[in-house]
Amino acid sequence: MASPLSTTSERRLLRLAPPQILVLGFASIILIGTMLLMLPVSNTTGTSLNFMDALFTATSATCVTGLVVVDTGTFFSQFGQIVIMVLIQIGGLGFMTMATLFALVLKRRISLRDRLILQEAMNQGSMEGIVRLIRRVLIYSLVIEGMAAVLLTFRFVFDMPFGRALYFGIFHAVSMFNNAGFDLFGEYRSLTGYVNDPLVNIVVMFLIISGGIGFIVMADLMEYRHKRRLSLHSKVVLSMTAALILTGTLVIFIFEFSNPRTLGSLPFGGKLLSAFFQSVTPRTAGANTLDIAGLRQASQFFIVILMFIGASPGSTGGGIKTTTFTIMIGAVVAMLRGREDIVLFRYRLAQERIFKALTVTLLALLLIVSVSMVLSTTEDRNFLMILFETTSAFATVGLSMGLTPELSTIGKILICVTMFAGRLGLLTLAYALGPKQGKPLYKYPEGKMIIG
């Protein structure tokens, strides 16, 4: 017989809206991860990690960011690293996706409420086919991570014993596919030791792009041979992703070509490979083969723009998303051409989509500007470094110019909040704090005002 207290708690939980459950779910996972990382067994020092650093690490892992205040490869023990890897997997796929996995394994029925939460978590417009999509997400993720782990193990075995190479292969496959950016190489080096290695670069870039385009697009591509067509969403995501990567490669290649701290010391093929990799990784991955602090300011600022745009909806990445950026560009083009509608691939976008894109962009700008202003007063660093770190946290990228390990307590709290908001989505947080209102029953008279 259930106790009155547990019954009351269940009723309160049932009254929560899906966005509120998502916020509480992610917060609970972060808290559990914090407690585990604080255990002496989780680090190599044998003492308890302080609460703030454990909270920051758990938030960064669950929000698949990759910003770290202590070096993952040298500070944490294997137990602590496995905790971080599990947090990355749960955070990347979403805790509701993982809960659905257990329900499917145990052959439990997925309730209507669970489907509503999954719809919110996957940013879907309807519940139709949501469980089928979750099954595909799990299968695609495990297959891609497994294949990448094998390839990375094959490469790492030349540098370390087989057992360690296998462990490194699995950890980095999970980290890179989920766009987390955590690495085990130590001394905050990330993948700089493999700057000229084609296999590591290509495998990691494939993982980053696969995790960043979104599971909806991935499912669309897998079914293309049967359908022989792609959805509007997939066309926009793939075309904008390709455009951003190619543009980023060209810009970084030009700006860094003669920089002795980055591309200057590499052969031509290495320059091209490194520029391409560094264009891919700001799509919220966080791994780097070049010294980020050594980049020219023009390159650093351009990476801030790439990080702000981020990955695609329904993916493991953050940012305002490629579709939002495409809609904003489409609105500008439509206005300049004197058109009322935004048309993409011969489809007209609904006004509600445009308003949502504008809202997401402005809320993101407001958050980044506000946090950067506060950090400018609490941290004694130049503004570009602070802006870079803040944008990296919001877009759950994990690239750093070296500020994160030196953050003050207030700075760590602000970056934690920024990572949390960036992973869940600003609209989801807004709906969790104040649920959506119903449509008004009347309209106000139209007014006119001068713009521009």
TrEMBL record:
Keyword field contains Protein biosynthesis: no
Localisation per UniProt entry: Cell membrane
Keywords of the record: Cell membrane, Ion transport, Membrane, Potassium, Potassium transport, Transmembrane, Transmembrane helix, Transport
Single GO MF annotation: potassium:chloride symporter activity
Transmembrane segments: 20-39, 51-70, 82-106, 137-158, 199-224, 236-257, 293-312, 357-377, 383-401, 413-433
Gene Ontology terms: cellular component: plasma membrane
Primary residence: membrane
Membrane protein topology class: Multi-pass membrane protein
Pfam name, any one: TrkH
NCBIfam families: 2a38
Protein name: K+ transporter Trk
Organism: Paenibacillus albidus
